Amino acid sequence: MLPLQGLFQRQHHFQHLLAMAHWDQATMMPDHSAEARADAIAELETLCHQQLTAPQVEEWLNQAAQDSTLDAKQKASLREMQRQWRQAAVLPEQLVKAQSLAGARCEHAWREQRKANDWQGFAANLKEVVALSREEAQIRAAATGSTPYDALMELYEPGMNCARIDSLFGELKTWLPGMIHDVVEKQRSLSIVQPQPPFAPAAQEQLGRAVMALLGFDFHAGRLDISAHPFCGGVPEDVRITTRYSEQDFTQSLMGIVHETGHARYEQNLPGDWLKLPVGAARSMGVHESQSLFFEMQLGRHPAFLARIHPLISEHLGQRPGMDLANLQRLYNQVEPGFIRVDADEVTYPCHVILRYEIERDLMNGALEVEHIPERWDAAMQQYLGLSTAGNYRNGCMQDIHWTDGSFGYFPSYTLGAMIAAQLAASVRTQLGDIGELITQDRLAEVFTWLRQHIWQQGSLLETSELLRQATGEDLSARFFRAHLQARYLD
Amino acid sequence: MLPLQGLFQRQHHFQHLLAMAHWDQATMMPDHSAEARADAIAELETLCHQQLTAPQVEEWLNQAAQDSTLDAKQKASLREMQRQWRQAAVLPEQLVKAQSLAGARCEHAWREQRKANDWQGFAANLKEVVALSREEAQIRAAATGSTPYDALMELYEPGMNCARIDSLFGELKTWLPGMIHDVVEKQRSLSIVQPQPPFAPAAQEQLGRAVMALLGFDFHAGRLDISAHPFCGGVPEDVRITTRYSEQDFTQSLMGIVHETGHARYEQNLPGDWLKLPVGAARSMGVHESQSLFFEMQLGRHPAFLARIHPLISEHLGQRPGMDLANLQRLYNQVEPGFIRVDADEVTYPCHVILRYEIERDLMNGALEVEHIPERWDAAMQQYLGLSTAGNYRNGCMQDIHWTDGSFGYFPSYTLGAMIAAQLAASVRTQLGDIGELITQDRLAEVFTWLRQHIWQQGSLLETSELLRQATGEDLSARFFRAHLQARYLD
């Protein structure tokens, strides 16, 4: 295992520099530096790929596989090394470099094109990204015997595939439209007012930091900054989350910060002694999203949590019309079909994911072309949420960063994460007690200890399904998510 | 030349990522991430060193040296490649890695140790840095037949050595003490008051940006941020300058920004088409410093420039006691022996440099040990400037960042830069006219065009001495610097 450990430690160090260069690109970098940055990132990504796929690595992996002295942790470590190697070795170096360059170009241009609602400009770049991703998907699919889209999803959610997603999302589709209807009806009579703007970004930032501290974010090993599209980046030793502030509305940014803090605590609490090896990394994108959604949905929007942070909100933003606790509790649990995924409530959110899943699946499997995305998007939005996005690219198919750099296969993770979060919360409830009571009794630390033990400190020791079984006693099921929505919005 | 160009282009890309990681380390990074960052930087620095010193590089260089078809630019390019290769190849990889780690550790700890005046804590780290730098200096000296310190100075100022420095600094020593005495006497009767604080950092920053814009800084390819020790970092395509704000005094930060803007404009205007090759890089540290000092001393503190930016100062900081133009002109040209190099006026500044030069020269040549630095420092400060720093390490030998990461041999560049700047300004005066009149007539663009043509766009095409001869018609001489001081402070 020693030469493998050396290799993956070097990769960890290079990934540190790449993560920081990406973070800087989204938060700090001036606009004319994009090309130089893209060139620099592509160079190191190419090198990482070369080192991971060098001829001797396969030999090292084969030798390690025959080592009968490996303990459970070492076996898991080897399994994750094999997975990374397999996923990297199958791709030609030139493709990796071309994707890095095209993705950086497309993403950078998108930041302005989205503002300008410039679909034609964006589509030209996106076609290049899609063409390269299809090439990648076909190469991966040919190697594993799966469909192209399944092969990409494996990168984000190992062990997942379209058959399982279709089953899980298919179940959602049977009851979700009815539930959205019922909740909207139930909430129709509620009086919900928007807190009165303006809210100074500096005050919002101070509030955000106070809530991050309450949620245990370690500011000695991370930062909060601003970017066009909020994300959690950096490295486990230096976790960088971002948000964006609107003077008109503090509520989205505040809950966005709670969300990213969930990602951040997972990263900040990964097992330190294995941190430089793949087995020490976060399990999957779905599990990652389950932590952010646990923080946002199970904790953050809980009426008891809002009661807990209401004094902080008043302290930083003052008392104004619409800032009373009862109104904020209604506002943060309001269900309303809308255009923007990142602004969606948790009841309508799966609709945004399912439509993106269906589009990117067909795009990668060759059943859809870039120029037809807007009409597919519009049709699905009308069908699932009763809204039209015709001509409104900015708030339609140009709203997300994911496709700009070719991250096809990622979107399902959001709804898988929501389901996992609900399932974990059900176990917390069984083992520790009602979450509202835990919050009210200032016992959040116990919840974090539970998550640390069952999820964060596990790293990638177990496969996702086994991780979930050990934490909750059973396989992933949509029924916990349904029960959570039922309890919060209809009971 | 093709394989060499590929190699140096890769180095350029990796240096981009390293420069950004260093910038982030000084401006953004949370404190517990220092070790992970140091590991990551050391890994890529080691790789750069490996690639630059790989066995085939010497062959490529030898082949290129026999190529009779090279034009002047290619010949200069090859000369700089040979220089970089020679400087890198002589060092063992383990030493490079150990220096990177020890330097990062020492620099990071210094940020707190300086505040705490903790010489003992700092000395422990510095000894490690000095031991490694001596090892480096001895290896370099053995390879070139020079003294250890000369071998290090060659890294920053190719072609320079102690004999020449001793001559130039020796000349300064004959007239500078007398001049300091005369200027202090002349200014004794001047009424100079400190502008009345406080000055909000946000307003100072806005003022700084306005002055940077006036000086032609390209904000599309660079940034202004905050760090404990101001510097100009990043890469030519993305130049990052920093400053630090004191609420008690805006004047130092403002002129610090003018200084770093001089460095930045040099970087931002290097020859774009050779940028990824060594011939496209800045010539030397002395030439770099000549640009920052041209901006700060020849332009920034000129009474006419202060008159030009006085409306901006009033606009951003308001009108208060001590903010009138006449007082600011006196304040910005006040000569007063003090503890801090970066706060020193240009008349006493060479004393700070000469004492550091003498200490680091003896330290590297083995004639001085770390534990005796404070007493040497104190003795020299008393001799040159009549001030004692006994026990005051924070404002004595712990004030600079340079030694923390082993940058021995750099300090002479500051005073070489001051001399070069004065010599360049004399040529500008001959060719374009009096600098005060150029400023008053809003003809700064002509000065920048002159610098762009004679210095910035030259990159490393010429050796420093030839660059200076082509720009000014003669070799480096201290007489222009003396004439400048005489004219500004005594005539």
Describe this structure in words.
Two copies of one chain form a homodimer. Chain A has 491 residues and is mainly α. Chain A has two domains: 2-146; 147-491, Neurolysin, domain 3, CATH 1.10.1370. Chain A has 20 helices and three strands. Chain A has helices at 2-27, 34-52, 55-65, 72-89, 93-115, 119-144, 148-156, 162-187, 201-214, 251-268, 285-300, 303-317, 325-331, 349-364, 373-385, 412-432, 435-440, 444-454, 464-472, 479-490, and strands at 222-226, 232-235, 238-243. Chain A has a three-stranded mixed β-sheet with strand order 1-3-2. In chain A, helix 3 (55-65) runs antiparallel to helix 4, helix 8 runs parallel beside helix 20 and helix 16 (412-432) crosses helix 20. Chain A starts with a helix and ends with a helix. The mean pLDDT of chain A is 96. Chains A and B meet through helix 1 and helix 2 of A and helix 1 and helix 2 of B. Chains A, B: Broad specificity carboxypetidase that releases amino acids sequentially from the C-terminus, including neutral, aromatic, polar and basic residues. Chains A, B: Belongs to the peptidase M32 family.
So what's the oligomer here? homodimer
CATH topology of the largest domain in chain A: Neurolysin, domain 3
Largest interface (CB within 8 Å) is between: A-B, 34 and 34 residues
- The gross shape of chain A turns out to be globular
Which second-level CATH architecture of the largest domain in chain A applies? Orthogonal Bundle
Rounded mean pLDDT score of chain A: 96
Helicity level of chain A, as a percent range? 55-70%
Number of helices of chain A: 20
> Looking across the biggest beta sheet of chain A, what order are the strands in?
1-3-2
- Total beta strand runs of chain A: 3
